[in-house]
Amino acid sequence: SKDGGRGRWTFYDPQMDEARETRNLLELDLRAAIARGEIEVVYQPVVDAKTFALVSVEALARWNRRGHGPVSPDVFIPIAEASGLIDQLGLCVLRRALFQLSQWPELKLSVNVSPGQFRDPAFVDRVAEVFDEAGIEPGRVVMEMTETYFIQSPDRARQALERLKGLGLRIALDDFGAGFSSVGYLRQFGFDRMKIDRSLVQSLDRGHRAVEMLQATVALARSLGIPVTAEGVETEQQAVILRIAGCDQLQGYLFGRPQSPEDIAALMVRPMEL
Ligand code: C2E
Ligand code: CA
Ligand code: CA
Ligand code: CA
């Protein structure tokens, strides 16, 4: 309404309204896309830090929105999380990725899990069903989770982790170094792997302080017996520093972008050359 007739709108902000509208439309389209099976999955190579051999792939969701084109996961994943669509979306991605993995007996797989997925009390049972259907040994799969959930509700997080680990799955702490990550979480929650965030890897180009910090972090993780993957590796120089620091797996554009299953299959036949 107008503020005392002075011509200033106090309660109505057309710009905010527009943003909300855009978001609602995105949510509607996302819901439809999930129902129609239009969420695709691409796979990014993860290589052994010593040999650069392909050892694993990370499954990443892709949405090509009808009539609009690709929408970034940084946009649609938060919408899925806020609207409760993440349960369905997460299971769709897992189902596709596991069926894909059954074609690749020599590889392991990582999938991302959002904290919201644990709100469904049947989540772990659903996950177990998908593994049964696909005939995949859970030990071949790592679920990647960020620290937010562990900070927000540590007790529930610990329980959820224990149930997933009970199925035989491995759990990785994703995006380490991007937030307030402390190595304490690694031990406290029994993670099986740590993934160093791209921002930390890219800071290596800025000199030895960053290199020393990274070395200390990796050394600490390894002293706890937790192997470390570095992500966002774009240059050979970064790869060398990370390998020497003790990372056992590397992931990044240097080794391959997220790509179609066909391209991953081609990589297995014709190993990458650097
Ligand atoms: P993430 O789990 O940290 O995934 C790594 C992101 O870094 C991916 O972005 C990948 O394409 C990008 N990346 C990999 N290597 C490089 C590099 O060398 N340089 C640069 N600049 N970027 C690199 P993407 O695919 O856009 O995904 C963004 C985020 O969306 C993911 O971050 C993850 O948090 C979320 N996400 C994607 N798929 C899923 C999913 O199926 N479920 C859930 N819950 N989250 C997902
Ligand atoms: Ca991830
Ligand atoms: Ca990450
Ligand atoms: Ca991330």
TrEMBL record:
One of its GO terms (molecular function) is cyclic-guanylate-specific phosphodiesterase activity. The keyword Transmembrane applies. It comes from the Bacteria. Keywords: Membrane, Transmembrane, Transmembrane helix. Residues 23-272 form the EAL domain. This is Diguanylate cyclase (GGDEF)-like protein. The lineage of its organism: Bacteria, Pseudomonadati, Pseudomonadota, Alphaproteobacteria, Hyphomicrobiales. The chain holds residues 453 to 726 of 745 of the full protein.
